Amino acid sequence: MKILSAINASRCVLTLLKPNKTSIIIRITQQRNLMSKQLVYDQFGDPLHVVKFRESEVPALGPTDVLVRMLAAPVNPADINTIQGKYPVKVSLPSIPGNEGVGSVVDIGKNVKGISKSSKVILNRSLMGTWRDYAVLPEESLLVVPDDLGNVEAATISVNPCTAYRMLMDFVPLQAGDVVIQNGGNSACGQYVIQICKAWGVKTVNIVRDRPDIAKLKEYLQNLGATYVLTEEELRSTQIFKDGLKKPLLALNCVGGKSSSQLFRYLNDKGVMVTYGGMSREPVIVPTSAFIFKDMKCEGFWMTAWNHAAPATEKDKMIKDIISLMVSKQVKAPIHKMIKFDNFEEALKNAVSPQGFTGCKFILDFC
């Protein structure tokens, strides 16, 4: 008797059929029993209270689906705000959190063409739920990245480095020798701004809050490529612009309040301040004279909105440029801490604390 079938599943069921007296047909039915560990919330609120751990059977692959084993996924402010119900984009409940991540392809549907088994992939869509160890995802939501791209860099590529890249590209035509000033210079996005500017020959003035280990932080940012690192107090009395440093035409604001007002003091005429965050939860305060006498502009930037509106060719170019900078070691991941997935509560606890996102990125480790 010959069984003309390849068994590729983890469990099989054999059914014996006897259509006549002389033959027996063996039908082999493949059943997937792979279980996915995942985080889920079925109501909005404090992540420490509403996010729960569960195990769920991984569904069978459709013809254009891809089975991905997650390697790493960051915990971003947007993830926390989404769980809290405070983010502009609302999700259907129950939901698996996580907008970013990198994984390895385990299996592919029969019609998948652009992805192979063992490929390293990232998500090119938000709200796909990366806080789980296995996921079945549509082919079009994934992008293959080079194997030599680090897991942390790959896992965090679609939010912070893309935000930094777009703000540096889209508002002022920067050239080598120009100057960019930013607050939140030690934030994840701020660290990418420093490194991209360094690669492009653009100087940066980076404002950070004072702290006991300020000398260590300054040294770290300068090693990334920061031209100047000043505390908010030092900025008020700095002489660097009187000593020959060109005034910036671009200011990047993720703090708001008095910190954003200070940026205007040093912005050049016709300069642009781009706001992409509000960590102080205070409004952006603009001096009237900045508008009337200096013709300065205020703009806002949200990476999610850009992704929805931009053509695919622009997205592809951006990702390729950033990957090139990362693979060539001109840009590396921000300060981060890897946390084993089973210890996810530690990541959430740090993320929701007042100091949670000040310069350290928490990344769930599935390896």
TrEMBL record:
Which one of the record's GO molecular function terms can you name?
enoyl-[acyl-carrier-protein] reductase (NADPH) activity
Q: What is its main location?
A: mitochondrion
CDD domains in alphabetical order: ETR
One annotated Gene Ontology cellular component of this protein: mitochondrion
- Which residue numbers delimit the Enoyl reductase (ER) domain? 46-364
Keywords, alphabetical? Fatty acid biosynthesis, Fatty acid metabolism, Lipid biosynthesis, Lipid metabolism, Mitochondrion, NADP, Oxidoreductase, Transit peptide
Per its UniProt entry, what is the enzyme's top EC class, as one word?
Answer: oxidoreductase
Which Gene3D superfamilies does this UniProt record tie to the protein? Medium-chain alcohol dehydrogenases, catalytic domain, NAD(P)-binding Rossmann-like Domain
Q: Where in the cell is it found?
A: Mitochondrion
- Protein known as: Enoyl-[acyl-carrier-protein] reductase, mitochondrial
